[in-house]
Design brief:
The chain is of the alpha+beta class. Helix content is 37%, strand content 16%. Strands 1-2-4-3 form a 4-stranded mixed beta sheet.
């Protein structure tokens, strides 16, 4: 796919292309911040669920930036040319949902995010088993580790989930 995508729908279009087994690569111009999220590596500030999804099927790379001065009228953002080379196709809706939970609050501990959906003791035991710090943040973990966590947390469940009952909030008086 080669495109200059409308910025307001770029993420959704790229996600669909990542899932499309007929799409082998993606070359698009998008807002710089979006390109950074798709191409970021573990440990980088922009590392997100979009980075994990990209790395799950191949790799993403920002080729170059396109400044606002190159457009008439000039936008208020910098654009980037993003290349995603796919090596395989993966379409796992449950894994995507897992990543949404893991990155829901990116500055919080990964264990805290996962404990909103999975059994807290199971999450902590699994992080320990994988020799991950209990204070690890979502952007600090590697893509392969997310696959391990997902597989381990869901392996004993027919529907792929160990969802806890929602916690009730205390009524304020």
């Amino acid at each position: 796919m080669v495109a200059n995508l409308p910025y307001y729908i770029a993420t959704n279009i790229i996600l669909k292309a990542l899932k499309d087994k007929n799409c082998q690569s993606i070359l698009v111009m998008v807002q710089k911040e979006v390109a950074q999220k798709f191409s970021a590596q573990s440990g980088e500030k922009a590392f997100s669920s979009l980075s994990v999804l990209t790395q799950s099927v191949g790799f993403g790379k920002i080729l170059f930036d396109v400044g606002a001065e190159n457009f008439i009228p000039p936008p208020k953002v910098t654009s980037s040319i993003l290349l995603i080379q796919k090596k395989r196709s993966e379409n796992n809706k449950d894994f995507e949902e897992f990543l949404k939970v893991a990155f829901k609050q990116p500055r919080k501990k990964l264990s805290k995010n996962l404990a909103t959906y999975y059994d807290k003791d199971k999450v902590e035991a699994l992080l320990n088993l994988l020799e991950l710090s209990p204070t690890i943040r979502p952007h600090e973990a590697e893509t392969a580790m997310y696959h391990q966590l997902y597989n381990e947390l869901n392996k004993d469940n027919i529907d792929g989930r160990t969802k806890q009952q929602p916690r009730k909030r205390k009524q304020s008086k």
